[in-house]
Write a structure and sequence with these properties.
By secondary structure, this protein is an alpha+beta fold. Helices cover 46% and strands 16% of the residues. The protein folds into two domains: 1-340 and 372-398 and 424-489, no CATH class; 491-557. Helix 1 crosses helix 10 (302-329), helix 10 (302-329) packs antiparallel against helix 13 (378-393) and helix 16 packs antiparallel against helix 17.
Length: 602
């Protein structure tokens, strides 16, 4: 990189070699990502041969948005206490809901999925900032990683580098963790001519990066601050050991301007310790892809399938536009030898009604129209390419809301639409495990940094009242000996599972209608399927239990609705009365009572 500070620090050389190796590993994808993004943003780079007109068929955005609308929402996450402490479990899940709202995770989840569609991978960073846990969607272009990383497990990497982090100089000076001696050296360098040039480049790169992240859907990007000097930082998460007797673990190096290490320490010291030493072997980053490649970490995305056909269609459409324009304007050859003697020179005439244009000699012998062939047949070829993309991506015309002009039945349309949606639902197999890992990282971050987390105030509606109550909670309120396990499910999977469970419970209830425990399970499943919260479900079931208890008390006292009840007990029948003598068969109102065979036709 230009304008670097000269240094002989051996650790800097190791970090540079890691960065260079990881960059070369990812460089092949940089241009493809740029083209994907420009096509999505409807930006076209023209050339003199194939793309002469600045026109774009928005196929990239069409297919991405079509697929995007059918992807499932953010999965449901619940932390279950392993010590069966329901009060602590309530507080832990309330803190998770607070974190989801504070981080706008529903919006960041959308940006996360869009990056997978466009680039093939997306990253989320988790950290503690100002006493709260913060989730950040990271641009894949800012991540460099060991080329020998297992694509399925990001924590198997020997190093990960987070680049293009721009921080005001004043923030570096105010952070006591950073080496102020190195920062003073940087400050003197930035005062030099080369430093001023690099400072201006940093500001331009920072603004460009923030504009791109805003377009990607992240809502909380800060505005530029004028007059600030920005320093380019890189976070190096490097797995190594400093002493022979130690085990390898992740270290964090903060590198400024590719020349100065202003901070380094073990990651477990930076974040905090856990019972299982989680942060010694895990990075504070999570990633996922919808197309796992065992041999290549930087896998393809949906946009990679659309890019080349979109460029082909754009080239054809550009040629069609230019062809139509030239045919409309018209071009002509003329015999220059016949005009040389008369001194006549053909001019461009403005078309007008009943216009007359003088030409010396017979027009058919002097001029000839340039033959520009009609390219309208290319529309059929364009449709062929679009249909091919629909089959490749699963974003069919029906999903796009386009009526299909074919003689097929409604059942066939629904079947094709259902199959296309099933392909999109297959995404949950990839991003649900990613969110489970993020929830586990959230749990471990709380365990490691509980002393640095601020208390938060939660609000809950009381039982059997409409009053709202508040309480301040902190990690000590939900900390238990055995900890928590993460339960997660996608909304589509949950709805499908609940529907199947209710169908089976309906069949069971038909055959065992009076079992109180089964009835309670059935009612709870119904209320969950209706979308009620756990507190609302408990309130409804508690009311039902109180109502049944009151009815039983009235029955036991012999009173029902203010009237005496002579006998409310159901006679106990023998197991089988079919073989009993007539005098031993129980009767009611002189009518014999026999057990009915459920398989017998009545």
């Amino acid at each position: 990189m230009a304008h670097q500070i000269l240094t002989t620090d051996p650790e800097i050389e190791i970090l540079r070699l890691n960065k260079e190796s990881a960059y070369n590993f990812k460089k092949r994808r940089q241009e493809e990502w740029k083209e994907n993004y420009l096509l999505y943003r409807d930006k076209i780079i023209t050339n003199r041969l194939t793309q002469r007109q600045s026109v774009n068929i928005p196929l990239m955005k069409l297919f991405i948005r079509t697929l995007f609308k059918d992807i499932d929402d953010m999965p449901l996450i619940y932390f279950e206490n392993l010590d069966n402490d329901k009060q602590a479990e309530l507080f832990k899940n309330e803190y998770w809901e607070y974190t989801v709202r504070k981080n706008k995770l529903d919006l960041k989840d959308l940006a996360d999925k869009k990056q997978v569609l466009l680039f093939g991978r997306s990253f989320i960073q988790i950290q503690v900032v100002d006493g709260e846990i913060k989730f950040t969607v990271v641009d894949p272009e800012d991540i460099l990683i060991d080329r020998y990383t297992d694509p399925i497990d990001i924590h198997s990497a020997r190093y990960l580098i987070h680049t293009n982090i721009f921080v005001p100089f004043s923030v570096l000076e105010a952070n006591p963790m950073y080496d102020q001696r190195k920062i003073a050296e940087l400050k003197r360098w930035f005062a030099s001519e080369k430093g001023l040039i690099k400072s201006q480049q940093n500001e331009e790169m920072r603004r460009e990066k923030q504009n791109k992240m805003t377009e990607m859907g992240v809502p909380d990007v800060s505005n530029p601050i004028l007059g600030e000097t920005y320093v380019e930082l890189s976070l190096h998460f490097f797995k190594h050991k400093e002493k022979l007797e130690e085990e390898e673990e992740f270290w964090l190096y903060v590198e400024a301007e590719n020349s100065k290490i202003i901070f380094k320490d073990k990651l477990s010291n930076v974040i905090g310790d856990t019972v299982d030493d989680y942060w010694k072997t895990h990075l504070p980053y999570s990633t996922w892809t919808d197309d796992i490649e065992v041999q290549d970490f930087w896998s393809d995305g949906i946009a990679d399938m659309i890019r080349t056909p979109n460029k082909v269609v754009n080239a054809w459409f550009s040629q069609l536009v230019e062809n139509r324009t030239l045919r409309s304007f018209g071009m002509h050859y003329y015999d220059s030898t016949k005009f040389s003697d008369s001194g006549y020179s053909p001019a461009t005439f403005t078309p007008q009604p009943w216009g007359w244009y003088p030409i010396p000699g017979k027009p058919t012998e002097v001029i000839q129209k340039v033959d520009i062939p009609d390219l309208s047949e290319s529309l059929d070829e364009i449709m062929f390419v679009i249909n091919m993309m629909e089959k490749a991506t699963g974003a069919t015309a029906t999903q796009q809301g386009v009526a299909v002009q074919k003689q097929i039945t409604l059942g066939e349309v629904q079947l094709a639409l259902g199959e296309a949606k099933e392909r999109i639902k297959g995404w949950s197999k990839f991003y649900v495990p990613a969110w489970k890992e993020r929830a586990e990282m959230f749990d471990k971050m709380i365990e490691a940094a509980s002393d640095r987390l601020n208390p938060v105030k939660i609000y809950k509606q009381g039982r059997n009242t409409k009053n709202i109550f508040s309480r301040e909670i902190s990690p000590k309120d939900w900390k238990t000996k055995s900890g928590y396990q993460v339960k997660i499910w996608s909304l589509d999977e949950k709805n499908t599972r609940d529907t199947d469970a209710l169908t089976k419970l309906n069949a069971v209830m038909t055959n065992i209608p009076e079992n109180p425990k089964l009835k309670e399970i059935y009612q709870r499943k119904l209320l969950e399927f209706a979308g009620l919260s756990p507190d609302e479900i408990n309130d409804v079931l508690e009311y039902e239990n109180q109502k049944n208890l009151q009815i039983n008390q009235l029955v036991s006292s012999g009173m029902m609705g203010g009237l005496p009840v002579e006998n409310t007990e159901t006679p106990q029948l023998p197991a089988n009365t079919s073989n009993l003598p007539a005098e031993q068969i129980p009767t009611e109102n002189n009518i014999p009572i026999r057990q009915v065979n459920p398989n017998q036709n009545l």
